[in-house]
Each structure stands twice: as C-alpha cells, then as structure tokens.
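Appendix B: complex inputs.
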Amino acid sequence: MRRALVVAGVEFRALTRTRSFLLGLLLPPVIALLGGLTATLARPAENRPPPPLRLAVVDHTGSLFPALELAAARHNESAKGAAQRIELEHIASLGEASADAGGTGAAPDLLVEIPADAAAASAEPVRLRLVGRDVARGAVTDWLQRSLQEELRTRALRSPGVSAELRARLERRVLTEFEASAPAPGEARAVAPDPDSAHPALRARIDRLGAYRRSVVAWPLAVILFFAVGLAVLPLFQATLEEKTSRVGEILLSSASPLQLMLGKLLGSLGACGIAAVLYAGVLFALLILTLGEAVPLGLLLLFGAYLVLAVLLWGSIYLTIGAACADLKDSQNLMVPATLLQLLPVMVIGPVMEQPTGTFARVLSLLPFSAPQMMLLRLGYDPAPPMLEIALSLVLLALTALAAVAVAARVLRVGLLAHGRTASLREIARWVRTG
Amino acid sequence: MGEAVRLDEVTVAFGGHRAVDRLSLAVPRGAVQGVIGPNGSGKTTTMRVLLDLVRPRAGRVAVLGETNLARIRDRVGYLPEERGLYRRMTVRETLAYLARLKGAPASSLRARIDTWLARVQLAGHAEQRVDTLSKGMAQKLQLVAALIAEPELLILDEPLSGLDPVNVELVAALLAELRAQGRTILLSTHDMTAAERLCDRIAMIFRGRLVLEGTLDEIQARYALGRVRVETDAPTSLLLELPGVTAVHGEGRRRDVALDGAPEAFLAALVARAPVRHFEIVRPSLHDVFVRIAGPDAQEATADA
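Resulting structure:
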C-alpha cells in the first residue's frame, strides 16, 4: 500500500498542478452560467410575454368596473409564457381618451363602453361598444364576455327572487379525489414486490429528502459527477501514454507491481476528482442553503460519493488501459473515440430519460454501469424515486464492472508499458489480459 | 557470500519465439557480472525476468535468495536500456519519487539526493526540470535514480552507452566504488573493453542461450589462440624450423608465431638458437571471443545446423 500511496501523491500533484486542471475546474461553472444567460437572451421573441393589452373602460352602470378589475387580476396572475396580460383604465367618457388606431403612443389599445342597462334585471343581451384596433378586439372580446357574464350571473343568483336551494344547486361545485388502484390479479407477478420494505431505514432517509429537494439537488449532482470524473480520468490516459513512450513505465514497474501502480494512479485521480466535486457540490449546497434554507440531503450525498468513486475506478481503468496499449496519440484515436462516446452516453440520452424517468429506457440506462452514475442521480430527482433495489443493483453492477476494469488494466499495464513503439490490436490486448 | 542471482533452466517465450532458452546463470554476491551478446540475443529479457517484469515460461529464478521477486523490489536498482524520465518534473522531484517508491526514508531524502547529485557532478541542477537537461546529464540522472535507494543488487542495461569518455570514467569509478561496498552489479554492455575492465565475471548470451561464462582469465584460456608474440633477431626461416610452429606473421624483429604445440617447448627451442628480448602468449580479447561466437561464420554455422 505504501507504493500505491507514493504513486497516488505524485499523480495527484501532477494532475492538479496543470493549467488544464485549473481551467477544467473553473470552466464548467462559467460555461453553465454563460449557457443559462445566453439561453435567456437568445430566447425567441415569440416566447417572450407580449406587451399588455390596455383597455380604457367607460362604465355607465357605475358598478361593473370593479368586477372587471378583479377578473383582469385573476387573468394576469395565471398568465404564463405567451399569454397576454390585461391592463384596465377607468374613464368617464369616450371623449376622455381616443383609441390609438395606429398602435403607437401610450393610448389604450381598445375603448370599451358598458351601457347603463347592463346591470339591469333583464333578459335582453348586453351590447358592449368596442372602439380600436381589430386585432385588439379579437384578443379581448372573449375575455370581456366571459368576465361580465360571470358577474351578471352571480348578481342574478343573489337577487331576492332566487331561492337558496336553487342558488345552491346552480353553484354546485365539482371536485376530484385520486386514489391509487391496487394491482389487478393478473399484474401481481409482473410488478416487483416492494423492495423498500426490506430497507425501511434507507428508504425513509431517501423519502425524507422530499421530491422537491431531490429535483433541486439530484440533477445538478449528475452534471457535477460527469464533469468531475471527466476532468480527473482523461489525464490518466495522457500520463500513461507518456510513461510508455518515455520509457519511465519500465522503471516504475521494477519498483511497484502493476496493481500497486494502478491503484496509485486511480487514487491520485480520485483525489483530483474529489477536489472538483467538492468545489462544485459545495457551491451548489451553499446556494441551496442560502436561497432555499434547505439542509444538505445526506442520503443523496452518500449515493453521489459512492457513484463518484466507482465511476473514477471504471473510467480511470479504461483510459489507463488505452494509454498502456497505444504507441502514440495518433494510434490511440481508434480506442479513444469509442471510449469517449461511451462516456458521453448519459449526455446523449438525457432528453428521453428526463421525459420518462420511470420508463424502461431510463431504468436500463440507470443499471448500465457506463451510464448508471448520472442516470440514477438524474432519476432520483423525479417522483416516484427509483426503488432501493434498483439503486443497490446499479451500485453492485457498477462495482463489479469497475473491479473487472481495474484487473484488466493492471494486466494490460504490465505488458503494454514494456511493449514500446507499437499499438496493440484488440486481439493482442485480449491475449495480454489472458496471459498478463 | 552466496549467490545474488540464480537462474535455473529459465525459458521465456513470446508467442512461438524463445527469447531466452533454458538459461542457467549464477552471480555471486558482491561480484560485477557482465552480460554480453549480440542485439536481440535475450540480455534485456533476462534482466526483465530478474525484475519480475517478464514471467518465464519455465525454470526457476531466485534473486537475493528470494524466489518471490515481488518481495525484493526495494533491494534491487534498475537502469533500463531505453531511458526516459518525467520531462516536466524537476531533478529532485524525480529522484524523490523513485527513491520513495523503493522505500527510502523521507526524512533523509533531501540530503541523500544532494549527495548523489554531487557525486555525479549534477549538484547545481537539483531544481532544474528534466526536459532542460542535456542528454549526458539525463543519463547520469537515470543512473542516480537506480542508485538512490542504495540497493543490494544493481541491474544496469547498457549503463555506458551514449556517455562521453569523461562520464564513462566517472561512471566506471562509481561502479568500482559500489563494488568495493559489496554491492552486486549485473550489467549488460556492447562495449567489450569496458566489460573486460569492469567485470569480475562475464556471461555471453547468444540466441537466448548461455554460451560463455567465467572470469576473463578463464575465458581467454578457453579461447586461447595458440599464438605467441616474440621479439628476436632470429630470421623467419629459423622460426619456422622450430617445433610446433605452423606460421609466422609480421615483419621485423617483433612477430606473431602460430603454434600447435606447447609454448614452453617453443620458447626453450628458440632461446637455444637465438637471443630473445620479448616473449608473450597472445590472449584473445573479449572482442575476439565475441566475434568467434557470434560473428557471421558462427551465425552461418548455427543456421546450417
């Protein structure tokens, strides 16, 4: 272990003292910030809220304008995205303001005249007079009709001639209640037994996070894990390739076993990855605590830590293997391209997973060791949270794959570092693994 | 004293090619053992076997009395033939890293590094980056990297290659000093003169097999040329009449005489016939032996066989 720690110390210093590491440490938050800013600024004009529709109202009844004001307030409160807000102005007569037919200046878009008989107890239609641009009329007519009809209907219902029973019947509300159905007899075998009953303590811990807190933290943690792992493991490839091409590897292998060398390199990489993760997650949690007053969700943090360690072991071993098997940077592309694409898999499938976080596709990807860390953290941000059995299974599969990758890398390192000047074929690598 | 290295019937094969073929060799503790042989004969592979870098297909290996070679990594220093160091590290960082890998105590490391750098005339370069060193400096640094943990056994693959004559002398003196301290040195070289000068024992590997092993005297006796060198006034015709003489080479007073009999009998007969000012038995150089074993004639003979 002493040798592994010596290697780890040197690898850690070599990794963290480079300009690329410092840049890599700072760039993701800056990119995220700039990306968000750019997206906001570049949002298409049609998605921006349109300017409010200005109505000047002449209310000859003297009583209906407050009802319209209330309706406008409700409308504006629920207006989202491209919905147009409504601004009302109470004027005494049409002569007080003239409609801005050209749509310029501060004049109202539409003049609305409510006749004096509108509030009378009558069955005759109320005829509103609208003056202004036709476009404005089209957008507001329906709202005006609904709002005034609602007010007149309410007044009519409250008039002395209407019995309490009739009023109650007319104002009868329709409510909904939801109750989850039990599985049908035929579905009993298809549905897995509730795994959480076997892990009540852990389940309770996860549940305590709450859906809101998970969604705020889990998704950013998945992104942090992706960046931190990438930042720490990619240099392992370059370092190993350099050790091979410069022949330092032979000296190292005469002083430490391939496994000790591997573990040292992975530990050093884990340290660098830890710095990045702690920095990113620290900022995230500080924001969470400062802005939302939320405590750090410990259960999620533990899962994040476990996935981070296993992801570094897995990807670090893969890149070490490639570095030891290749003769130079150019030759390495044949192996680096598929490995990098595999590492980018979570980014490529993030859309479908976010659309259906509990679907089969998302569940498979969150069990697949190459995408499990990000996908499982992502799914933890949605309700219902993944069952504990799935989380445990993904961790076990990832751990087994990472251990296998470490063993393979150690065997390839032993032979590859000594095989100067040539890039191994996949068949040769397989032979090294068998006989290394 | 015992043996520092023992190889018994060791065979290493890469695919169908036998790089080392049933090789047996014993190196006494405290000796400087030279390993010579043509390129691709299996010298480097043999050294890698001793370092547990390559596992033999057959045979038994013991280093410093241990058959589990992982246990003696800290006690063995290695200078590979293909040299390289971390280009961006400083000289001190490089030595500290490799020394600590070998278990050198951290407390005395700084002083130890300074001592060794002074010993190879690199004292002013401790904080310099490796990629700024000259080739000769880098080679000396690599030698120090192999020595810094002060190992019991040193395995040096071509330690003198690429060094200028001044540095060759410096390294030769260093190796003599280490030998005097009782350390065992196993070195491979293509420089036959250096091998004759530095090594107590010499082994030659040819096509993966050990074809020669012994002290220089033993080797020279075994490969004696049957030739003497004399300085005499006797004419060549007289020399040809003496017992055992098959040929006379050279002109003037000093000539080489080929014999198929005992040199003592030839000398007695010559002294009786003419005054002799100089007499020596011509011994084969290591270079001669090497060429006789691995030269084109030998290679053709081996191929025919």
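The mean pLDDT of chain A is 78.
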